[in-house]
Every structure is written in structure tokens, then in C-alpha cells.
Hints:
It is a single chain. This protein is mainly α. The chain is 46% helix and 8% strand.
Amino acid sequence: LLGLDEDVLAIRALGFTDAESRIVSLLLARETVSKDQVVFVMHPDSVDRRCDRHPNGAAVHISRINAKLRQLGSSVGCLWGFGWQMTAQSKNAIRRALKPPLRTAAE
């Protein structure tokens, strides 16, 4: 539905939590990601996804993800007032760390 075509289990093996893995997968699959999309993948089984459990919950997850991504030579950039994005270089750094390699958007 949101373009989660990356292997969440492979991402999880890099030390990310389940929610973080879904968020990283979303970031890898899309050019930009909104706060609502992050909340959606953080709580996939929630009946009411409009309400995050904490007003800054998505930003907190992104902050924790960024700390882990830096160890891989990657990062998430902020799109002020909208959400987040990753550069092609950051996405490639993650894909290189994954075993087996994930598909690219062209595949």
C-alpha cells in the first residue's frame, strides 16, 4: 500500500526494531515520507492511525533510526513541515549493508 517493497526482516537483522525496520523500508521505497505515513507503519494494526501515541512519536523514531543509520554511513533528512527523505547515497549505503542485497526500484 505505501510502497514497502524492501525486506523488513533483512533490515531488522541490522539491529532495528520492528517499527524502525518498517520505517526504514518505507524510506528506502519512497522519495519522501510524511509523518502520517510513518505513523501508519509504526502502528499497522491500530484501528485509529490518525492519533499517534505521542505527538512527536514519529520524530523520536526517526531520531533513533538516524543514530543507527550513521553507523552504516547513511542518514535521514528532514523536510520541515512535511516529513523525511533519504538521498540515493544513503539508500545505497543501507542496501550494501544488507545480506542478501535488496531490490532496487528499477527491478
